[in-house]
From TrEMBL:
CDD domains (UniProt xref): TPP_PYR_PFOR_IOR-alpha_like
Residues in Pyruvate:ferredoxin oxidoreductase core domain copies: 253-346
SUPFAM superfamilies: Thiamin diphosphate-binding fold (THDP-binding), TK C-terminal domain-like
Pfam families found in the cross-reference section: PFOR_II, POR_N
Organism: Clostridium fermenticellae
Gene3D superfamilies from the UniProt entry: 3.40.50.920, 3.40.50.970
Keywords, comma-separated and alphabetical: Oxidoreductase
Protein name in the entry: 3-methyl-2-oxobutanoate dehydrogenase subunit VorB
Pyruvate flavodoxin/ferredoxin oxidoreductase pyrimidine binding domain mapped to chain residues: 14-229
One MF annotation (Gene Ontology) recorded for this entry: oxidoreductase activity
Length: 362
């Protein structure tokens, strides 16, 4: 397969098209604007439907409606825009409607800044909307990984009848890299994917409580709502098999960096730099941040490892809470943080590590 040079947001959109996505509704917000722009140009070529809604709230509910017909559907936004979409996403989770969305994160809280950040971690992994629903959440660290995860996300969503989130930061969304694009699904394959949903999709079924083809979210009867929640909890427990994580030079590491997304990409280069200086550093990079790969932290040799460094573009730290849960107080944890649109640098991570080494020796 040939490689093409693409911006992250556009590559995500193209991956969605190739996965069979044929409906997108969204609203402009930096730094994800290239996603809806790309869909608006690309969909006429494949018979898809693009809508720029009058708001984020309208857009996510359009996706809710389109996805309810069994059509592969997607939306995207950035941070504060995702907050506006949260109710509609919760409705999709309640009604067990498959949809995919991308958060190209920016600084916050509130409107914040238009520059990249990782300040939506808790929202993405712990509280994406009311009702305690969960989703598979993937956090790519390269444009290629964003492409691959977006392509697969539609299969996960259809398998589980549940929303799936691609959690990117603004760096990955706006940077350009060479990527190998996945195979384009044929019109026949796209039709077959939609046909596979006909037992539940809103395509003219008789209204009843056994068939969720009607778009009402979940079951309003108390006796039914609990059973819906119990079914969902069983689904979430099944996701352990889908967890993805990268371990890099962890076996003999005296210092282990824990990071995700662009911070992990920066940190991986730090590992290479410090290894050349004789400092034994390793990296744990969760690719699936929900469910979180807690068990991976059991692979650290705590007789050798003296500290875990949490590296993230969030102040106060958010990813840190899951790192703490994984480490289980088996060694100290330090942090290297920035936020509000400041991008993590190799220099900052190296400085944190060397300061920790100097303090320990002192």
């Amino acid at each position: 397969m040939s490689r093409v040079f693409m911006k992250g947001c556009e590559a995500i959109a193209e991956a969605a098209v190739r996965a069979g996505c044929r409906f997108f509704a969204g609203y402009p917000i930096t730094p994800q604007n290239e996603i809806p722009e790309y869909f608006s140009r690309r969909f006429p070529e494949v018979g898809g439907n693009f809508v720029q809604g009058e708001s984020e709230v309208a857009s996510v509910n359009m996706v809710y409606g389109a996805a309810s017909t069994g059509t592969r559907a997607m939306t995207s936004s950035s941070s504060c825009g995702i907050s506006l979409k949260s109710e509609g996403i919760s409705y999709c989770a309640s009604a067990r409607i498959p949809m995919v969305y991308a958060n190209i994160s920016r600084g916050g809280p509130g409107v914040g800044s238009i520059q990249p950040a990782q300040q939506d971690y808790l929202q993405a992994t712990k509280a994406s909307g009311n009702g305690g629903f969960e989703m598979l959440v993937f956090a790519p660290s390269t444009v290629q990984e964003a492409v691959d995860l977006t392509y697969k996300a539609f299969d996960y969503a259809q398998r589980d009848k549940n929303p799936v989130l691609i959690l990117c930061d603004g760096v990955i969304g706006t940077m350009m890299e060479p990527v190998v694009l996945p195979e384009m699904k044929t019109d026949e394959e796209v039709t077959a994917l939609k046909e596979a949903n006909k037992d539940w999709a809103c395509i003219g079924h008789k209204l009843d409580y056994k068939n969720r083809s009607w778009i009402q979210p979940g079951q309003w009867l108390t006796s039914k709502m609990q059973s819906v929640n119990e079914e969902a909890a069983a689904l979430y427990d099944s996701w352990e098999k889908d967890v993805q994580v990268e371990e890099y030079m962890v076996e003999d590491a005296e210092i282990v960096i824990a990071a995700y997304g662009i911070s992990a990409r920066v940190s991986k280069s730090v590992v290479d730099i410090l290894r050349r200086e004789g400092i034994k550093v390793g990296l744990i990079r969760p690719i699936t941040v929900n469910p979180f790969p807690y068990k991976t932290f059991d692979n650290i040799n705590y007789d050798v490892c003296k500290v875990v460094i949490d590296v993230e573009m969030s102040i106060p730290a958010q990813f840190l809470h899951d790192v703490e849960k994984g480490v289980k107080e088996r060694c100290p944890i330090d942090t290297c943080l920035c936020s509000g649109g400041n991008i993590m640098s190799r220099e900052a991570v190296i400085k944190t590590i060397k300061k920790w080494i100097k303090t320990r020796r002192g």
